[in-house]
Amino acid sequence: xxxxxxxxxxxxxxxxxxxxxxxxxxxxxxxxxxxxxxxxxxxxxxxxxxxxxxxxxxxxxxxxxxxxxxxxxxxxx
Length: 77
Fold this sequence. Notes:
The structure is a single chain. By secondary structure, this protein is mainly α. It has a domain at 28-68. It is 40% helix and 0% strand. It contains three helices and no strands. The radius of gyration is 22 Å and the shape is flat.
C-alpha cells in the first residue's frame, strides 16, 4: 500500500543546510519467503480452503525460473 507523503515546509536557510537530516531512502515493508508461507497458511485456515495456481500460469513461472541467466551488466569505461 502506498501512503501519501507528508508535506514539509522549509525556510531558505533550512534548504541550504544539512539535507542528510531530512532526506532518507523510502522504506517499504518487506516479507521473507518464510513470512509469506506463514501468512498464506494463516489465510488458508481463515478461508477454509487453499488458493491454487492456474496450471498455465504455474508452467509459465516455472519456465521463467528455469531459463534465468546471470546478469552481466556492462562496464562503464
